Amino acid sequence: MTRKDWDTYFMDIAYMASTRSQCGRRHVGAVLVQGKKLLGTAYNGAPMGVPDCSEAGCMLVEEFELVNADGGEQVVKKQRCIRTIHAEQNLLLFTDREDREGSVVYVTDQPCWTCANMLANSGIAEIVYHRPYPKDAAKVRGLMDSRGMRFRMLEQYEPPAGTLTEVHN
């Protein structure tokens, strides 16, 4: 057996963290790494002590966004659950700013616009993700470029057996 590279090792841990999620739509895990030292893990879910989506159902809201597409403006409808705190948000809530300075976040899914904004302002230097999130991809990429943050997808990565990788939108 060959030794795993660091990207694979830390993304595997993010996927294992995602197995704690009770979200029926998307299991997301995130880890904070400084150098090669693991500083924290998180997953998406309801606030502590509050029934999660598997117990109380999703709290879905619809949003509409005006986007430029094919030379014109187009209205795009997006649906999201507001019961769930995203893995990236939980990671920021439970780690120290000092530890985040210059660190890397490994996250199973490309961050949404809100999480990308929070990560861009958190001291993190790089975001590594596996699954794309097309709804916000262009905006998030633009934000990362304008902030000068490294932002990359692990395209050839294979998640560990036993982790839920299906996404339901």
Taking all residues together, what is the mean pLDDT?
A: 91
Beta content comes to: 25-35%
Query: Within the CATH hierarchy, at the fold level, what is the topology of the domain at 6-46 and 84-153?
Result: Cytidine Deaminase, domain 2
In CATH's first tier, which class of the domain at 6-46 and 84-153 applies? Alpha Beta
CATH architecture of the domain at 6-46 and 84-153: 3-Layer(aba) Sandwich
Radius of gyration: 16 Å
Distance between the ends: 37 Å
Structural class given helices, strands, pairing?
alpha/beta
What characterizes the major β-sheet? Answer: 5 strands, mixed
Which strands sit side by side, in order, in the main sheet? 2-1-5-6-7
User: What string gives the helices and strands in order?
Assistant: HEEHEEHHEHEHE
CATH superfamily of the domain at 6-46 and 84-153: Cytidine Deaminase, domain 2
Helix residue percentage: 25-40%
Low-confidence parts: none
Cofactor: Zn(2+)
Active site: 88
Organism: Paenibacillus mucilaginosus 3016
Family: Belongs to the cytidine and deoxycytidylate deaminase family.
